[in-house]
Amino acid sequence: MSDADPADPTPPASPTAPLIVFAIPGKWSDRTDLVARLAAAPGGYVVDGPTVRDANTGRAYGCDLRPRVPGLADAFFAAGGGRIRRADALAVGNHASVVRLTGFGGSVAAAVEMMRVATVVLAAGGIAVLVESSGLAHTADEWLNLAGGRDPGAVYWAYVTLVAGGEGGGEVAG
Description:
The chain has helices spanning 31-40, 72-79, 86-93, 108-123, 140-148, 154-159; strands at residues 19-26, 45-48, 51-54, 60-67, 97-104, 128-131, 136-139, 160-163, 170-173. By secondary structure, the protein is an alpha+beta fold. The protein has one domain. Strands 2-3-4-5-1-6-7 form a seven-stranded antiparallel β-sheet, sandwiched between helices. It has a two-stranded antiparallel ribbon with strand order 8-9. It starts with 18 loop residues before the first strand and ends with a strand.
């Protein structure tokens, strides 16, 4: 955590590092429920004030529990790029709350670590992951496959939205 502001995630190596933002809908009834489920989940992460912290390394990530978001299922379905089945979107629609997870990016290692933190939040009752910083949604199964796989392109597919149109399309990275 930053000495200047304990509510901030661990500062990046570079002052220009981008912020990675995930929205993870889940089954948590309140913050106490989230804290208990994260403590019981594998991975060694604990809620420490407004952050979730890796108990082994001390690295901290912003962790804000927000109330249920009406219409979130439609947003996930749209952001899934055709990969999210209607049944998965409906599961998102039945969420009780949303964890907004933030951390600094700027490197593959930082992106992989954020994937690891999101995986622990999924294990603690999360339903799916929306990479807000790129507008890309993943089911829990898809995310766990990307985060736990040996495919060197997994980090790319977790964060990058392919955009069609114009002069051959483009990419949006989160």
